[in-house]
Amino acid sequence: MPTVVYQLPDGSASSVDVPAGQTVMDGSVRNNLPGIVAECGGSCSCATCHVYVEGASAEAFDEPSMEEQDLLEYLEGARSCSRLACQLVLGATMDTITVTVAQSNDS
Ligand code: FES
C-alpha cells in the first residue's frame, strides 16, 4: 500500500498508509490530519486541499487537468509545484509519496 508523508504547516510530518484508488486528500481527511480542509469533498472546486508536490512524488501522478490548473492559477501561495490533493489518486505501484501541505488552506 502506498505511504503518504504529509509535511504539515506546523513543521511536523505524518506518515499514513493510503490504499490505492484513494486520493492524497482522502488519506489526510480520514486520519484527521490538520491542514487539508477539503471543503468541497473532492470535486475540484474549493482548492482548500492545496499541497506542494516535488520531484519523484510529483512525477508519480498524472498532469493536472485544465480544471485543476484554473483553480491553482488564482490560489494564494501557489507555486509551480502546487497541486490539489483531491486530484492525486494513489496507484498500487507507488511506494512513498511526500507532499507539503500549504499554509493557505486554513485561511
Ligand atoms: S477538496 Fe475541494 S478542490 Fe480538492
From TrEMBL:
The keyword Iron applies. SUPFAM superfamilies: 2Fe-2S ferredoxin-like (SSF54292). Its cofactor is [2Fe-2S] cluster. Residues 2-105 form the 2Fe-2S ferredoxin-type domain. InterPro entries: 2Fe-2S_ferredoxin-like_sf (IPR036010), 2Fe-2S_ferredoxin-type (IPR001041), Adrenodoxin-like (IPR001055), Adrenodoxin_Fe-S_BS (IPR018298), Beta-grasp_dom_sf (IPR012675). Keywords: 2Fe-2S, Iron, Iron-sulfur, Metal-binding. CDD domains: fer2. Gene3D superfamilies: 3.10.20.30. PANTHER family: FERREDOXIN/ADRENODOXIN, TRANSFER PROTEIN, PUTATIVE-RELATED. Belongs to the adrenodoxin/putidaredoxin family. This is 2Fe-2S iron-sulfur cluster-binding protein. The lineage of its organism: Bacteria, Bacillati, Actinomycetota, Actinomycetes, Mycobacteriales.
